[in-house]
Amino acid sequence: MRRLRSLARASALLSALLAPLVTVPSIGCVIGYRGAVEVEGDFPLTDVDAVRVALPDTPIAVLGQPLATSLHIDGVWTSVGGSKRSAADNASAPALNFAREGRFGALTAVIPLQSADVVDLEVGSITMPDDRDLEIWTGVGDVEVAQMHGNISIDVDAGRVTVFGGDGGVGIDTGAGDLEIETTGNLDAHTGRGRIVVRQDGVGGNDVIVSTKRGDIEVTLRSDANLDLKIDAVGDIRVQTRTVSTVTAGSFAREVGNGTVKIWLTTDAGSVTVRLDESL
Amino acid sequence: MSPGPWALYNGQVISALVAALVCIAPAAGTASPAPTTSTPAPAASAPAGAATPSTTATTTATSSTSPSTSLSTAPPAERSRLLLHPAADGTVTVRDPNGRVAASVIVRGGQDLALDLAPGRYSVTDDTGTTRAVELQAGSTLEHSTTRAAAPAPARPVAATPAPEGPAKGPAPTVTKPPPRKHPHDHERRHGGSGWKRIVAPLMSATIPGSGQILNGQPGKGVGMFLGTASLGAGALALYLTRNPLDNSSPGLNGSTFGAEVVNGAGFGLLTGALSMLYAAQIMDAYGVAAHAGRPKPATRHRFSLQLTRMATVGFRAGDPAAAYYPDWGFNFQAQVYKRLSVGLSDLSLKYGTARTTVQGGVRLSYRFYDKGRLWVGGSLGLILQGTAGRRPRPLGDVVSASDRTSAFAAIPYAQLDLRLFFLDHWSLDLIPRVSAPFGTRFYRRDLALPSHAATFELGTGVGVVF
Q1: In chain B, N or C: fewer CB atoms in 10 Å?
Q2: C-alpha gyration radius of chain B
Q3: Which of B396, B441, B458 comes nearest A28 by C-beta?
């Protein structure tokens, strides 16, 4: 194992040495330094019902805490510069800003134009009260939300999204990336390219409306009562519950009971599997 | 009734176009090399007929003489002359390399006949079936004589004489040298080759790389150009498609993918740079061949020069991905104010970022210290100025940070080497290594920027024109 590690280290060193040797005569290179500054912030959420976290490209992980009264964030500003000093200056130039309007608050990053695109935020973790509604905006970055009981809305250009919670409902839109959701709330999720895995939590009965342009869909229901099943898939469709059981392809529609629970699943390239959690 | 010369000429033009369109498909294969000269003119015939004696032919080359009869079968711009000295009455047929009849004349013994033809290679066949290859050059006259056989045979039909395959043995024809000219390409320049091809060939190459070469009768080169540009384009596209944003979305990467991203960016830059150079070169080549431009003689005493360049480098960036490919397209306009010394505006461009717009322009001083033949080598000093305006998002509530500036300025001094290879008298492909260091953040398109004081080595490629 140690030998493997040293081999990997030597390979990384070799590639780091070879990269400039290859690029300088062929296309060019840039000489400079990297900088990093740790960031930490605590923003009270008194009289705030909904919070938006709108940050530049970064992975974001939010954890709900029942006893918390404020939003706490920690992370690192990384930067590049032509000298050590300018790299450090660029890393310390941006700031986190929490603005409020009524009972709505927004956490944003304020980056001076002079430092734009030469700094980047890497969020470590965010904790906040678990009963607030949460809205997350970012460019490229995986998003993970857990133990939040309010409404959760996530909008990401590219990134994998994982949600555990969201009793007040979950809405997700990502350009590319797998989705994994376990919720008791109504779900409306879309990904441009990626696999979707959904598990109803609690007693079930919540709507599941999901779609992907390329990828499989897998849904595990807690209840098969009053289903309104509408499935469109280029690949196979497999439904195995106590009330509906089929193996087909193309499209499938079935209404059970009064059809109040929407299970609408669409994939332009992939298969769909719906099963019932028999553990109940 | 035989069709008129122009009807035949137009027919050949249409067939050449159809052939070019058919050959555009990659499966054109390696056709036999076609002549570089223009399509031969249509056939002409002389009146009167006579018996067909058996003859043997010899050719001699002399300076131009005035024949007793002259038939013009080529446009005046491309005229060269084949002077026939028939020893006996009969028929002489002149064919182009494709086997098409360029001229078919009935001759009388002792009566000279001149044929004006387009320059190129021909085969001349008399009634005996004897075939000789001749090559006509622009502005020259070639004399071709036929003599009776040692033992004259009685007249017999032409069809009864078996035609030997290929040219018969005998003295090889030589061509009278044209009178010396001031510049070797003046003639071609003056007459400019085929008019419509000069326009259509480069346009076709711009649309489908290599198709202009095929139109010019160079199918091998055309297919090569097409395959070359297609390969470079496919390679660049493949590299582009390997970029997956999800590779950089995971937490904790901390720039660990730097090496792979450098290789990807450098490869993409090289492939696209080579693609743009080859694309421009084959358009220039299509024009040059169609216009019979010959070897370029760059205009060293030009007044102005215009250049479209793409400076490019691969450099680090904050966060993930840890490296990126930085292209910078720009226009340059310079005036030659003194011998070899030029000044002007450079690196003019507009760049849109995620929440910003950058206007870029600069000044440049250039000196050309080598300009022999088609290669120019020079050096330049310049200064790029960038002004950037940021778009501030609508503030929420009353809290707005005072540090949120909405404008920025940068100055980027640089020195560069200018390598220009001319493919035409006025048009060149340029290779420009450059070193620079920005004072202030240098912005590129999208979310790319290089920090202040970062020494930057770039490689530029471009197309230039002097006039």
Answers
A1: N
A2: 32
A3: B458
Among A198-212, B15-29, B113-127, B324-338, the range scoring the smallest mean pLDDT is B15-29
pLDDT at B66 over 60: no
Q: How far is B255 from chain A (nearest CA, A)?
A: 10
Residues of A in contact with B241 (CB under 8 A): none
**Confidence (pTM):** 0.67
Range A45-53 average pLDDT: 93
Segment B323-352 mean pLDDT: 93
- The yes-or-no verdict on residue B425 having pLDDT over 70 is yes
State the residue for tokens 């018996």.
Answer: B51
Rg (CA), chain A: 23
Contact check, Cβ <8 Å, B449/A31: no
Q: Which residues contact B388 (CB under 8 A, 6 or more apart)?
A: A113, B353, B356, B357, B358, B359, B407, B408, B409, B410, B443
Question: Which residues 259-298 of B are in CB contact (within 8 Å) with A?
Answer: 259-260, 262-263, 265-266, 269-270, 273
How far apart are the CA of B385 and the nearest CA of chain A, in angstroms? 14
Q: Which residue of A has its CA nearest to B390?
A: A113
Question: What is the bridge-based pairing of β-strands B323-338 and B341-352?
Answer: antiparallel
Tokens 């901390």: give the residue: B254
* A115: helix, strand or coil: helix
